[in-house]
Amino acid sequence: MIKWALAGILYVTVVILGFEAYDKWFAEDKNTAAQTEDHSNQEMKMDNGHDETGESGESGGHAHESASGTTHDDSEVNAFVQNDDKNIKIFLKDKAGNPVDELEVNHEKEFHLIIVDEQLQKYYHVHPERTGKGEFTIENTLPEGFYKAFIDIKPKNFAYKVEPVSFIVGNPSSSTHGHELIPDTTFSKKVDGETVTLKVSTFKVGDPVTLSFELDQTNLTPYLGAMGHVVILDEYGKEFLHVHPSNEKEPIFETTFEKPGIYKIWAEFKQNGTVRAFPFVIEIKE
Questions:
Q1: What integer pLDDT is reported at residue 29 of this predicted model?
Q2: Which of 16, 168, 180, 263 has its CB surrounded by the most CB atoms within 10 Å?
Q3: Mean pLDDT by 10-residue block, N- to C-terminus, for the chain (286 residues)?
Q4: Three-class SS state of 218
């Protein structure tokens, strides 16, 4: 009788302990599942969320008076421009926000900065100096106005596409916006007493184009390792081309226009020690 009583007590004890263990295991499993679901929801929220500081957040960290930046899906490098009364600074960062500091030398310089006003009437080709890791600076001597910067660089180990970065100098009137480009009817331009004539092989979109320039070559000397440089923008100041001569001895350039439209060309030549930019406006048609 005593044996049967002990066996019954042992059986009940095992059953109770089994239920407690099952209940504890189920509760822990349920809690783990809930935590996993909550973590997944947090990740989804982060992935779908929109950080309002985004592009301006990067530049805003450096800004004192005016800053702006540009990003592009095809580019692994983002460029940010900060300017004040004294300096223009450019910051280069990768997609994670780290400085991009290693640049290839291209035509004797690591950094070519092209600045135009939004009317495409003012043009500057300058070369900022390195002042920090992924940071370049040049003195700000621009008059008041709305501008676009084109950071022409070749980062090592990163894909990069030149995109316009808009910025403002001073407090210009909004009336300075807008200027219709009218194609030139003649292609001879005189700057500081020097005359340059442009010859375009074709005005058809998609075809290889040769841009040849007639000028006094007796006083022509290499500029940044070439017998000239050509910068081309479309009428909206978005599409950027920086073209170098097809050979080392003649001011002949080759390129292709992928879209029809009106384009402005600045041809830069160094004559008698002075660099001059000669502007031309052409229309590319279907």
A1: 41
A2: 263
A3: 44 43 41 36 30 28 47 82 95 96 94 96 97 97 96 95 95 72 96 97 97 96 93 96 89 96 97 96 97
A4: helix
Which pair of tokens denotes residue 194?
Answer: 């020097």
Write down the domain spans for the chain.
54-176, 188-284
The pLDDT, as a whole number, for residue 175 is 61
* Whole-angstrom distance, CA of residue 146 vs CA of residue 169: 7
CATH 1.10.3470 is right for the domain spanning 54-176: no
Nearest of 277, 280, 275 to residue 221 by alpha carbon: 275
* Sign (positive or negative) of CA dihedral 87, 93, 96, 98: negative
What is the distance between the alpha carbons of residues 33 and 166, in angstroms, rounded to a whole number? 49
Q: Are 169 and 145 in contact (CB under 8 A)?
A: yes
Helix H or strand E encompassing 268? strand 261-271
Output the pTM of the full model.
0.74
Identify the DSSP state of 174: G
pLDDT at 69: 64
DSSP bridge partners of 220: 271
User: Could you give the 3-state DSSP secondary structure of residue 210?
Assistant: strand
126: CB partners within 8 A, 6+ apart: 113, 115, 138
| Same-fold call for 54-176 versus 188-284 | yes
